[in-house]
């Protein structure tokens, strides 16, 4: 069974270096390892100082690298759907490259990256797949896509297909718009099935764990707390926080104030994430690029730990419980606050919104007719009473 390790964090904290160092460390232990970049900036090639393509390329024993090309990925997975949407745009007077650009639905370009995870999980080509992701906001959009797409498919797609089947022979002579045929709908159904598999892979703690990378500064710390909360809200499992670029005590008087500031933030990080493993990396004298320096970084990072292992006990992010005959939904959201949290039941779905992030929970049958009647934060959980 393949192991998936996903590294995310604020831009500039060193996700790519950490991902690359982890890949080298695992490869050195005899595991066939792929490091795949889903960051549009594609810094992986800079870290290894070599060209990397859309297909895995071997760079050393047991170590492979891949930088996803959105164009190639869409062609590989969604060519039929893209052709239809392009034809639709052209029927409305949009020409050339513009039609193709508009035909790429929002979120679809990022979601192509997730389908590689499904592919590698199915064919067991690698022992471990390491994802070097885009900065936090883009990563959250990426990880929320499978569920959002599933909602669309289950609520809207059946109606769309039925309507198209009835209207196609009646309206085709009168409309200047191509009506999707069964091949297009079949492509969408296949995509739906694939996304459901991706969601299962990413939410299974035996397969996938997410690791947060941050720096010991206030902005990075705050974004890491938010990312942790949102990832748990979407049901993903986080097992560690990696603090990168820490100044050593021997860095001289010039950096004394920086060290003092970092020390304060480090203490707060250790308190805030007390139930997670916290790993620390000192600031390097040189930029960690190339196999040798990245290998040294991996040794400093993991020491005697095995990166393949789950670093902390996984606490289920979401639980549906019955306590004293009362039905309760517990959602682990340790850094959320009441003022920025909204929830309601919408036709058998529980909608939870924290700040700008919303998740639609498909309620179990026993709760589908119930509504939230009370909610309170309790020791890092949002406890929702259903009645």
Runs in which pLDDT lies below 50 for 5 or more consecutive residues are: 87-104, 159-164, 166-177
Just give the CATH class of the largest domain: Alpha Beta
What is the CATH H-level superfamily of the largest domain? P-loop containing nucleotide triphosphate hydrolases
Q: Number of DSSP helices? A: 12
Number of structurally distinct domains: 2
Strand content: 15-25%
The SSE order reads EHEHEEHHHHEHHHEHEHEHEEEEEEE
Distance between the termini: 41 Å
Major sheet details: 8 strands, mixed
Helix percentage range:
40-55%
**CATH-level-2 architecture of the largest domain:** 3-Layer(aba) Sandwich
Mean pLDDT: 80
Number of strands: 15
Shape: globular
Give me the CATH fold name of the largest domain. Answer: Rossmann fold
Find the structural class using helix and strand composition: alpha/beta
Radius of gyration: 23 Å
- Largest sheet strand order: 3-4-2-5-1-6-7-8
